[in-house]
Amino acid sequence: MELDESRIAQPRPIHILFIGAGAVGCFYGSRLHRPEANVFVSLVCRSNYDTIARDGVQLKTHTFGDYQFSPRAVYPSIQAAAEADNAPNQGWDYVVVTTKALPDVTDDSKDIEPIIKQAPEGRSCIVLIQNGVGIEEPHRKRFPKNPIVTAVTIVSAEQISHGVVKQNRWTRISMGPYSDGLGGTTPATKTLVERATRSTKQLVKLFTEHGKLRDAEEYDEVGILLVRWHKICINAAMNPSAVLAGGVGNADMVTDTELRTHLRGCMEEVFEAAPAILGREFPAKLAKPEQILKSTERNTGGKPSMLVDWEHGRPMELEVILGNPVRIARRHGVDLMRLQSLYALLRSAQRLRDERKKQEVVHEPKKKEPEAVKAPEPEVVVAEKPIEVAEKPVEGAEKPLEGAEKTFEEAPVPSKL
Amino acid sequence: MELDESRIAQPRPIHILFIGAGAVGCFYGSRLHRPEANVFVSLVCRSNYDTIARDGVQLKTHTFGDYQFSPRAVYPSIQAAAEADNAPNQGWDYVVVTTKALPDVTDDSKDIEPIIKQAPEGRSCIVLIQNGVGIEEPHRKRFPKNPIVTAVTIVSAEQISHGVVKQNRWTRISMGPYSDGLGGTTPATKTLVERATRSTKQLVKLFTEHGKLRDAEEYDEVGILLVRWHKICINAAMNPSAVLAGGVGNADMVTDTELRTHLRGCMEEVFEAAPAILGREFPAKLAKPEQILKSTERNTGGKPSMLVDWEHGRPMELEVILGNPVRIARRHGVDLMRLQSLYALLRSAQRLRDERKKQEVVHEPKKKEPEAVKAPEPEVVVAEKPIEVAEKPVEGAEKPLEGAEKTFEEAPVPSKL
């Protein structure tokens, strides 16, 4: 019943369900969907359901030009997908989660349970394309027998209107197996690593051969977690600071002497902690804190997604970007001091903001209720003036600075509220 | 020409000028003013000048009952005091600065120069009753020959209307000489220590014998600086965090698990740094971080003064409470990491707030210009439910927890803007 690479050439179809039809879900879904090769992508939408169910997804990409993506099936909710007549007989081969990671608001693993249970126990592979660290744990706990592939993307894309997705730059998606966060220490988790590794290889192959991505990358478990922590190094520093500093963009932060010292301190904390937690050094190709800061100087106009969320009164990904890193490090005896301070302050600020918002609703009952707190897709937006090439690329001048691109991608988008 | 203790009994008058006729200035000024003993206090006022010039100051005190304070002279500005016909012939014996410490807005040492120059060079003793650390340095630089007495007070008092000052609780004022921040390392600075020590002793005697204060305390130079740093331990943790956490009062902060961890981290940083900087341990009687946190749990309704300033759009004492500690520690090779993060974030937030305020003024030219940024007196306000006795007093059950009272004193006051 397990998936394996040879299936690509087999007549048996591969069924992939994307949970979250935002920019990331639509872009990567469109790269995998190849009915002629028996690979079928379906989407669970939210507010954009009507449009996509009727017209499919229109892609305007920097890398592949403009094209239409007509998913095999489109569902208005997970429950609808679970109850649909047109669901695959054996359940889904891959369930790809691309929603914003908000464990303090919703439990993604509980949400996808009806979908996972459509397949025989342990069959569906769960793929998580989300920000943060520690996002795999709830899935691991709820689905102890399912392979998990955890993925980090640096794509810069945005949904400019319902069903219309613009990819601005970058395509890279890095993937690897997740068993127990340590690379598999028991026979049971070792088996999970093996299965998820085969799934990773299959996804890399599908993305590369069918999707024509040049940088779908495979890592081992510790390797992909190091990539996640490296992204934390950037996001946990830049994102909350942009909010707490009163609403400051990326370049303005790194050109303020004190803020730069603070940001470097945050990054260095993570740079020292992650290898201690994971038992392996960062790959040399990943940008060091000073390189990240240097590159960010030119990212004028760029705003971290968390600041955009804050400005629009939306929930921020602070648990997966700050809370989980702090807690995971603590379990390993490492204190992330600056990150803990940012976490404590921003968590409180968000709670008070939400309490005040609730009071406003109570006091002004005629106002329309604010939209449900969970956004349907991650914020992946683009800087006004993205930098093509970092000043001191570490792998080669024609490539972006490895691991530093995330700071260039994020800019304000028109509010949906 | 030097002051000495014996002068109290001498016929020659002692002339004391308070710069800043807020709650602190009026309270301590009223305790020193004894015309019958040849000790004369004069005041430099600001917005409350007309009232005090006409009616004097009305004191409503917890400790000494209600009484009237009629200063020898009242001036509307420092310049007016410097040019007044009724200024003392030999200049002022003591120039006591009780304004809010805002070195990023005004240079107090430059402001008082006309007053200091009324006396022969090096004669006037400068007394600083202000928050923060490093506040003495600009005075030391500008007036290399004047003795400086640096003072920390925990009085809880407020000016409830122009010229009406309410003292709610506490009277303690701790004083000591300031030469070079190290206790005098050269013959010249040793002389300054000796002179300022005599001035400290005289002030303690005046406060005690004339003013009937039971806790006017004398410290040596390193001792009083340790008291300052201990107050930083509390204020640098509580004050900026209350603002950055979205507007949280004292008790609510310490009962939030993550904020408490953050606050403890801030306090411990200072607790470790100050002895390294000053070469002496904190006195055992000063409360430890956990004791401070514990006591603060019951300070419901109390708000740090910085949060009150923030809520009213006023400048905050962030340079003397955060910037100076961070810079002084850095000079001694110590990184105050959490404090540096707070400093970077709050400084940026304040700057952006002020820029937005300016833009509002530009866009709405008919609105009244906001009041000049420098407040005339430090915010010394009181918690709604001050705690009489800390849960675990370190010196005795009838006394407040040493060094922890500051967190109980601060609460919202009606806005003056």
From TrEMBL, chains A, B:
The keyword Secreted does not apply. The keyword Cell membrane does not apply. Signal peptide: none annotated. Residues 354-377, 391-409 have a biased composition (Basic and acidic residues). GO terms for cellular component: cytoplasm. Residues 16-179 form the Ketopantoate reductase N-terminal domain. Belongs to the ketopantoate reductase family. This is 2-dehydropantoate 2-reductase. The lineage of its organism: Eukaryota, Fungi, Dikarya, Ascomycota, Pezizomycotina.
